[in-house]
Amino acid sequence: MLLRNYKITKVRRSLCHPEWIAVRAELSNDISEVFPYLNAILKNAVYTPRVPSLNFKMETGFTSLMPQGIDVGQVLYKEDAIKILDYLRELINDTWERRESITPLYERKGEIKAKDIVDFLPKTNCRECGLPTCFAFAVAMMRGQKRLKDCSALSKPEFAEDKEALVRLLGTVASEDVAE
């Protein structure tokens, strides 16, 4: 087990979106050794080895891993952040346990663009998400302002494969239980 515990040390309101909070947690252990392995398995991770840090987008917002800290942004309640931190502790420890079967990736990958997301959206421009186009929805997802569940068309059976592709594109941290 690489990460035993975390302690929330800071909770603050987002300046851009006051309804959201950002949470910082201090870690019991240095987790930087797992970053190259997470970088290999998380499709949307941005790894900066010289810092070191690993940043990625979850359906719930942006997350930053540092050697002895985690920042979780864009959640509504502290309880949501705790669910995400628990999920991340499990992900970190599971990845560490499986590291022998994962080829670590030590360099930075290309980032996912809004165009990559819109390729799998229904492209109906239905406006049910509150935005004028599916491309605007994709941009809002990139900014953490929208989540997959905000696109009602993706819950229809005919778009199930597209939704699955988006979950894969956005990485393994796009779990529905964390996104609620």
Brief write-up:
This protein is an alpha+beta fold.
Please provide a written account of the structure.
- It is a single chain.
- The chain folds into 2 domains: 6-101, TATA-Binding Protein (2-Layer Sandwich), CATH 3.30.310.10; 114-179, Electron transport complex subunit B, putative Fe-S cluster (3-methyladenine DNA Glycosylase II, Chain A, domain 3).
- Helices cover 31% and strands 21% of the residues.
- It contains 6 helices and 6 strands; from the N terminus they run E-E-H-E-E-E-E-H-H-H-H-H.
- The protein has helices at 35-41, 78-97, 114-118, 134-142, 160-170, 176-179, and strands at residues 6-13, 21-27, 46-48, 53-58, 61-66, 69-75.
- Strands 1-2-6-5-4-3 form a 6-stranded antiparallel beta sheet, with helices on one face.
- The two termini are 27 Å apart.
* SSE run: EEHEEEEHHHHH
**Strand ordering within the main sheet:** 1-2-6-5-4-3
Q: Overall pLDDT, averaged?
A: 86
Q: How does the overall form come out from the CA principal axes?
A: globular
CATH topology of the largest domain: TATA-Binding Protein
Helix/sheet category:
alpha+beta
Q: Using the coordinates above, name the CATH class of the largest domain.
A: Alpha Beta
Give the N-to-C terminal Cα separation: 27 Å
Uncertain stretches:
172-180
CATH architecture annotation name of the largest domain = 2-Layer Sandwich
Major sheet size, sense and barrel closure: 6 strands, antiparallel
Number of strands: 6
Number of domains: 2
Helix content: 25-40%
Strand content: 15-25%
Topology at a glance:
Elements (H helix, E strand, L loop, with lengths): L5 E8 L7 E7 L7 H7 L4 E3 L4 E6 L2 E6 L2 E7 L2 H20 L16 H5 L15 H9 L17 H11 L5 H4 L1
